[in-house]
Amino acid sequence: MQSEIAGALEGRPQAMAHDAPTLLVTVFGADRPGVTAALFEQITRFEERTGYTARVADVEQIVLRGRLVFGVLVTAPEDQTEFRIMLHRWASAWKLDVEITEGRGDNRPRRAGRSRVTVLGSPLTAAAMERVAGSIAQVEGNIDRIVRLAKYPVTAIELDVSGVDPARLRERLAAAAADAGVDIAVQRSGLARRAKHLVVMDVDSTLIQDEVIELLARHAGCLEQVERVTAAAMRGELDFAGSLHARVALLAGLPQSVFDEVRGEVRYTPGARTLVRTLKRLGYQVGIVSGGFTQITDTLAAQLGLDFAAANTLEVADGRLTGRVVGEVIDRPGKAAALRRFAASAGVPLSETVAIGDGANDLDMLAAAGLGVAFNAKPLVRAAADTAVNVPFLDTILFLLGIPREEVEEAEASVHETGEPGEGEGEGD
Q1: Contact in structure between 195 and 352 (CB atoms under 8 Å)
Q2: Mean pLDDT (the chain, rounded)
Q3: Which residues are CB-contacts of 81 (< 8 A; sequence separation ≥ 6)?
Q4: What are the tens digits of pLDDT across the range 64-88?
Q5: Which of 58, 79, 202, 358 is catalytic?
Q6: Where are the alpha helices (DSSP H) in 61-151?
Q7: Rounded CA separation 277/299 (Å)
Q8: At residue 1, does pLDDT exceed 90?
Q9: CA triplet 366, 406, 125: central angle to 5 degrees?
Q10: pLDDT band at 9 (very low <50, low <70, confident <90, very high)
Q11: Lowest-confidence pick of 90-94, 131-135, 240-244
């Protein structure tokens, strides 16, 4: 086997020696088309003229408000003088600045303990970034890379961090997030983060802005009683199954036609349609699980083209609600069981799932998922979840998955071109 591996590797270029002489060429100035090509053209001409082979070890480029910072790490020629003169003349002709730094070898490898940190702010202040960066430094983490994912509807910044255990980093940054007034997600770097193929979310106060049982209670004239029980259940003060039966009993006698009225009253959370559409275009499977009722959630699932849905079912007899639920109750354990069932059906391991919720009855589901997100959640849920999002835009979840706003907007533009309903359009928005 070893000989086979050696044979397979034979002829492959080896990594640059750690002590090989290298030059870091850094270009600064106004961005314009053709800068990158022009720089490499100059290096190529120098190669042809001198016989030097420029091996490119690394390239990095960023543009901030039209200002370019472009770095190239190449093997150094034996005679650097002519090379440096050539690059300075080229930069002057392009009205750019260039800095050439001598060194040895490639970049140092990233240290163990790699995390992807996502910071969401509305607005994102310098003080917040100072607190985040300072907290990373306090646990001896190193920021290897920073990139902006979005400027709307929130500012989303992504940082690659190494040198500290992700669990320890998450604990430290949770305190920083609270003090700085931003949302921070810490996830282990690697393939697992890119492979979350199933997203399952709660419905009431997550996918939609409303609590369906309260909409029904308003028609039954018992809204205040239901609101009190709902609030206590979401805070974890009451057993969800018991509170569900108590609230449903108050709906007895409502005509079945109330479902049509409530469907028209439901309001999607801002960004809900965008979130689902973008995930579906990226090949994700998407589901909902609710302590609410199939008479409403089935309609939502059909509107959004969801892959999975689970909820309670209100019993109806002779055209009226009986005040009872039928079948299995979807409570806190039931939501986690639904997540596992959806994952098995989708052929996705739990480690590659995302769960989103806001209430205490979502806790088991959030804990079972590969990434549990508390969305505008109660304090108990925020403390237990992997990360929390406290802005009223559901599509900000996409940034936690590393999907930049530009890609979301491109997908949305194609939707409007085809005439599909956008955010704020269509039934229920």
Answers
A1: yes
A2: 89
A3: none
A4: 999 999 999 999 998 899 999 999 9
A5: 202
A6: 80-93, 126-138
A7: 16
A8: no
A9: 70
A10: very low
A11: 240-244
Residues 24, 84: Cα–Cα separation, whole Å: 11
For the residues 161-170, what does the mean pLDDT come to? 93
In b/e form, how buried is each residue of 308-317, taking b as 16+ CB within 10 angstroms? bbbbbbbebe
CA distance 184 to 168: 14
Question: Which pLDDT value is given to residue 314?
Answer: 98
User: Is 179 part of the annotated catalytic residue set?
Assistant: no
Distance of CA 368 to the CA centre of its chain: 18
The one catalytic residue among 19, 144, 204, 318: 204
Contact residues for 118 (Cβ-Cβ < 8 A; gap 6+): 149, 156, 157, 158, 159, 184, 185, 187, 387, 399, 400, 402
- Are 316 and 322 in contact by the 8 Å Cβ rule? The answer is yes
Q: Angle at CA 277, nearest 5°, toward 344 and 361?
A: 50
CB of 363 closer than 8 Å to CB of 384: yes
The per-residue pLDDT for 412 is 74
Helix 294-304 to helix 272-281 angle, to the nearest 10 degrees? 50
Amino acid at site 209: Q
CA distance 266 to 270: 12
| Three-class secondary structure assignment of 359-405 | CHHHHHHHHHCCEEEEECCCHHHHHHCCEEECCCCHHHHHHHCCCCH
Task: Give pLDDT, residue 15.
Answer: 55
Distances (CA, A) of 410 to 157, 164, 168, 328, 417: 20, 36, 37, 41, 11
What the block records as the tokens of 103 is 């060194």
Beta-bridged to residue 29, according to DSSP, are: 68
Distance CA 23, CA 134 (A): 31
What is the model's pTM? 0.79
- 194-218 tens-digit pLDDT: 566 899 999 999 999 999 999 999 9
pLDDT band at 235 (very low <50, low <70, confident <90, very high): confident
Distances (CA, A) of 403 to 148, 157, 236: 11, 11, 33
CB 250 within 8 A of CB 226: yes
DSSP state at residue 249? H
210 is catalytic: no
Quickly tell me which residue has 């190529």 as its tokens. Answer: 44
Q: What is the mean pLDDT of residues 359-386?
A: 93
